[in-house]
Amino acid sequence: MSAEVTFLPAGKTIKVRPGTTLLDAARQAGIAVRTRCDGNAACFMCKMEVKPGSELMPIGDVERRKLAGMEDGIRLSCQARVKGKVQAEIPMDPLRAAVLRQLAKQAEEDDKLW
């Protein structure tokens, strides 16, 4: 039996064995996910938004404590294990997001000049 993970916004889908972490699935799919703690639930950099209806194994105590107070649907990809069909959205890298915001702002200012 295999499970299936679709990573958004890339739309890339990969089949994995049940029990595979979202982080390992992303790596197998060739999708870069930033981490600093090598998957030990310490850095929070691998957070993903798991879409409703996604089939993951129950959240563990460590992840539950780490995510206390965060929005529903946020999971640590190094801890969240795939059970069936999953859709997970990888947030944009903060540096890339800042660059894109700046470029959009500059384009808007350029439009005002012309």
From TrEMBL:
The protein's name in its UniProt record: Ferredoxin
InterPro entries given in the database record: 2Fe-2S_ferredoxin-like_sf, 2Fe-2S_ferredoxin-type, Beta-grasp_dom_sf
GO molecular function: iron-sulfur cluster binding
Family matches, as PROSITE patterns: 2FE2S_FER_2 (PS51085)
Stretches assigned to the 2Fe-2S ferredoxin-type domain: 3-96
Pfam families, sorted: Fer2 (PF00111)
